[in-house]
Each structure stands twice: as C-alpha cells, then as structure tokens.
Known about the structure:
This protein has helices spanning 30-34, 44-52, 75-90, 108-114, 131-136, 143-155, 173-185, 203-209, 218-234, 265-287, 305-309, 314-324, and strands at residues 8-15, 59-66, 96-101, 119-127, 159-166, 190-195, 197-199, 238-242, 256-259, 293-301, 329-337, 345-350. By secondary structure, the protein is an alpha/beta fold. Helix 7 runs parallel beside helix 9.
Amino acid sequence: xxxNSAVRHKNIPIFIPHLGCPHDCVFCNQKKIxxxxxxxxxxxxxxxEEALSTVSAGEQAEIAFFGGSFTGIDxxxxxxxxxxxxxxxxxxxxxxxxxxxxxDYIDTEILDILRGYTVSAIELGLQSFDDEVLRASxxxxxxxxxxxxxxxxxxxxxxxxxxxxIGLPGASAESELETARMIVSLGCSAARVYPTxxxxxxxxxxxxxxxxxxxxxxxxxVKRTSDVLEILIKExxxxxxxxxxxxxxxxxxxxxxGGAVHPAIGELCIGELYYKLIREQLISLCENSRExxxxxxxxxxxxxxxxxxxHKKINKERFYNEFCKSGRIGKIKILESAHLRSFETEIKxxxx
Length: 352
C-alpha cells in the first residue's frame, strides 16, 4: 500500500463551474456540487492567497482547477490561469498544479501546452467504462475516448487520477467493478469515487420522477462503493475522496431529490471497506483455530481507528455479534500501529 502520511497534501481549489463542458450530463449540476455559481478571473490570486494562509507546516499545497473541464475552456483563459498558478510554483509557495477535465478534451496539443507548466496530475472524469452507461448518462464520449486519454496522459508522464461514479443510469454492480479494474489497468495512481446524488433541475431527477431511473439507497450506495474501493486499495490506488463534499445545498431537500446524500456517506463506505477487510481475517483466524480464542487485537494504521470501528461504532457491534456472542472469540480490540499503512490490518491473538 502507498503511504502518504509523512507529508500531508492540500489542494488549493479554484472552481471553474461548468466552464469548458460541452454537455449537460443527466446527473450534472456543477453549481450545486462545487458550491460556486460564477467565475471571476480577477479573484483567482486572492483565492489562492486566502487558501495559502491556511496551509500549515508539514503540508504541501497544489493549485487545483476543479469544477469544470479545465482543458476545454477558452484556450487563452486556460493559459492565463496556468500562468497565474505557475507564479506560485516558481515562488516556492506551492509544489504543482492539478486539474480535472473530460477524456474527450485530452489530445497531444493540449498535453504539449500542459507540459510547459508544473502540472503534476490530471484528473479525468471517467465515470464509467460501460458505453451503455455513458450513453444513458449523456456523457458525450465513449469508453474508447477514455482509454485513449488515459494512455496519452501516461505517455506524457503526468500523474493520472480516475474519477468514477456509482449508481449511474444503466450501471450495475459488475459494470462498476469493471470500471474500477480499468482505472487500475490504465495506470491511475489515485481515484475519486462518487455515489450518485440526484440534484433537482437535472435530467436525472426528471428520469427518477418518471420511474425511468431508480435512486440509490444509502445501503446500496455503501455496498457497491465499498466493493469498488476494495478493488482499488488492493491494487495500491490512493483514495483521494469518497462521496461529494457535504454542504448545505447537498442536504437541502429543495435542491436534492435523493441518492447518496447521507452526511457521512464517505465515512460509511470506508467503514464498510474496513469491515470487510477485518472480517475476512477474523473468519480465517477462527477457521484455523480449534479452540475458542480468548482475545484478538486488530491493528490498523495511525488515525484509522474510527474508520475501522465504523460510523457510530457499527463495525464494532457487528464484530461482537458475529464473533463474540457466538463464543468463537472472547474479546476484540481495535488498536493503532505506527508500522501499518492506510487500509492495512494486522490481527494478533492476545492471552491477556
């Protein structure tokens, strides 16, 4: 597993809501997702300075152009923004630049421009590698476009980050697992995974209201997302985010029709992943022991106890009900170890 605990990373986000996007995907309402409804180039330096004032010792910052399709915006505006960001790189105040964009706005001309700047990572909104899902979501590109873009980005030496969604129209649990496998096979080093939120004033909302789309329940979103996360972390893919940032609009029923809107959806998904990883080891331990095990110590990485215990301690309760009440294990303790990395777990039998 990768361990990024030594140096903490912080993005300085500059949101360019919907700029550069040629399509309105059925699920998309970037103004609500990003919390930004307009863009003012003259405010960029002020936003960067304000964000830099919150960067603490031990953190490395990157300027991140998020919210729209950065490489699809007006070319002069893109270069202007890159030049502003590069000033901060040359001044030693940030270590690089990253951006999010669409697969169909990646080509050699764009990558040649980006290569002239300190661009560290390109995040691609892949969403799915299932062409039927892409069509139903009105993405405006194909899975072949995504494969081509990923390969080009890797050829140019940029870090590649894959963004995917759970619960899109026409998607199945298996198609989402296949998308995760493609993210791995195409060389992504990190990923963002977003269970679908259905915003009002989107086509997806209208589809749901007509019964043409079934909104994900929290339970289904957690299960399908955690299955995807398991594939990614077992292949050393760094998880940058799970679920949209919880803000007031996302929790507002006047703004959101339904979907994965639980305020702790990311925590629930990661907690479910820890439950699977730990449970698998506990089952193996019990199968290899002919006697009742008096006590088990489960070790996780520094700062991961809460994730392993689960939201509102749900995992701790499930472990107790399955292994302790049945008499197979006397006690289960979840502890931290400085020697473990994210999502690594270690189990020891204790006779204390």
